[in-house]
Give the backbone structure.
Amino acid sequence: MRLSQLFTKTSKTIPADETSKNAKLLIQAGFVHKEMAGVYAYLPLGLKVVENIKQIIREEMNSLGSQEIIMTSLQRKDLWEKTGRWEDASVDVWFKSKLKNGTEVGFGWSHEEQITEMMKDYISSYRDLPISVYQFQTKLRNEVRAKSGVMRGREFVMKDLYGYSRDAKELQEFYDSVSDAYLKIFDKIGIGESTYLTFASGGAFTQFSHEFQTVTDAGEDTIYIDSDKRIAVNQEVLSDEVLKQLGLERHKLKEVKAAEVGNIFNFGSAKAEQLGAYFTDEDGNDKPLFLSSYGIGVTRLIGVVVELFSDERGLVWPKSIAPAQVIIDRVGESSETIKAADLLYSKLLDQGIEVLYDDRDVRPGQKFADADLMGIPLRIVVSDKTISAGQFEVKKRTSTDVTMQSLDDILKDLAVKE
Amino acid sequence: MRLSQLFTKTSKTIPADETSKNAKLLIQAGFVHKEMAGVYAYLPLGLKVVENIKQIIREEMNSLGSQEIIMTSLQRKDLWEKTGRWEDASVDVWFKSKLKNGTEVGFGWSHEEQITEMMKDYISSYRDLPISVYQFQTKLRNEVRAKSGVMRGREFVMKDLYGYSRDAKELQEFYDSVSDAYLKIFDKIGIGESTYLTFASGGAFTQFSHEFQTVTDAGEDTIYIDSDKRIAVNQEVLSDEVLKQLGLERHKLKEVKAAEVGNIFNFGSAKAEQLGAYFTDEDGNDKPLFLSSYGIGVTRLIGVVVELFSDERGLVWPKSIAPAQVIIDRVGESSETIKAADLLYSKLLDQGIEVLYDDRDVRPGQKFADADLMGIPLRIVVSDKTISAGQFEVKKRTSTDVTMQSLDDILKDLAVKE
């Protein structure tokens, strides 16, 4: 895309009420627009990052054999009453409203109840199991505080997956395979090294639930990491007994702040029993379904990536989720320079590479600053100087080294995944 | 996808409260699940149709130079108060709720106000114009009645596009180009012949607004079509004066029921003035932006297509939006048949063709009935008989003719767009 045509602009001003680093940078770079606290619209570059993350997650979920659907925001009160999760006393993040006939409705902050009720129509026999479905859903949560930018939204995109199994053993096998898939996803997004499988408090059926926590000072959780074993314990369950059970030693743990980017819940058969979701087993007996649910905060991940990688010059996107792989900074307005930059732009597009082309009539300094602020992995300068050298001036966002490279070399570098 | 793995099933039962033909068929074929009146979840096959339609629209919007974004459902009361569209007396489809601190919020039934407020941050000069943005947004509308299945939802997906122009002339040029793009979209989706550009009541600035109405008895509007001139007049503006103005003759018009699949509004400068959205013109003067907005009901289109094309055997999808191009019905369980069907499945997938593969252990009659109910454009039967003939038994969904064809011939036919 040509920056002269992109309607967003980089900016030096940010909303006075914005305190989080991730939202400040995303707003300044023109990736998001703040509607109210915890509520952000995604502009063209921000939407690209969202879609790139979704695609990485989608591929892994499909590899698990999970099937994509999309449920609704509007929720029926009666379903959530059955599981005791309608009243504000038990769930304090509901947005609620009323139909014209007075019927109360809620807006989906989670979807276990709704999906399980639906699956009753499609699961009748053990032959239908195991099965899982997932969606990318806009969740609405009436958070009291929303001061962490896109890391804690009142409206945000989540991938949630729901697995139905015939018993605890089958559930555990699926649980482990999703857990592996999650680690792959965080690796691909570039935060694998900072992300820990974390033991947190469980529910009625399991001693622990599992979280995926990414170490960042912007996180709201405190966890204790064992860097060697690559696991962590959430503060809420830290005790000598738990450490012994997990084979961890207190003196090897490090206390850090972290943000929960994924979580896994094992509901056992409890929710199915509440909702009347049964199947017929091999012997003709009715058994309750075993439910597990698996979340990844898609838009939260964007905030975490910004917090982790950005620097004093702005955003820094990992290649895998960057809104573009390359930004071409055209320096100079001679017809030769314009011709050379246009040609490079079309050649890169022909190779299927996502490119931003700064063809604006602004000072080189502003172009360089904007390229850094937007965090595009590779900057290529086209100027009289580079034309006479027969090469391009190339700089990685994560480096200050400028090198001269031929187009062939640039294409080779771009083909390498990092 | 193998039907043995698809979690949805075709069904003969439908919700007792469902009266619309489109929702009945979509539910029976396993494309949607009804949550409450006017609120439907989209299952794997239904979601594919949604995404196919979105992609057709997206390509045309991008060709216009429009830029995709995604706004939020949560809406600020103060914005809509400025334009007099917050109170239920003026807009009766709001869902509203409250933040924890008591602040009232609404859920987006439309987005003109929010987008225009945002664009104030990005448009300052005539050099920024014209510009347009679009989104695929889940709209929430508190409809009193929702009896038309997916054609009138309380929750539905809409593509809405917002154009900002410097004056009435520039607006009109854009208006005409979007209008052309809309006709292309309806052609591609297969409803072009049944869809009419329709003159309807205008607003403060224009005598008429324009609707795109598709002729179907399931529609809620009454329009008068001139089949030769390919235009129509909505009942609400039908008068001798209007007919004269449009060069139409009453005796050539035919009264029909129709469903509005798209619409165009010209707000002139009124909304920008209410919201304080100005730009600086060539002479340094502040001028209000001219706003036009353009909607297409994505999920409504699905309902319209079902109403138009389905028959007594079930759904009938145009190739361009079908959830799969081909369904393979494997008849017989001999190892040769399984091998031949598996091979055909993988060969078609290798060609990038979307395929459903009915590998279930059910009677042939049920497979044929399900293939028809799901509306897949091409059915290919693999059986002992076809193997011995060295060809496949092929039937189009829209025909009862069965022909024997080689794989090469099948691939040639599939490459032709209809």
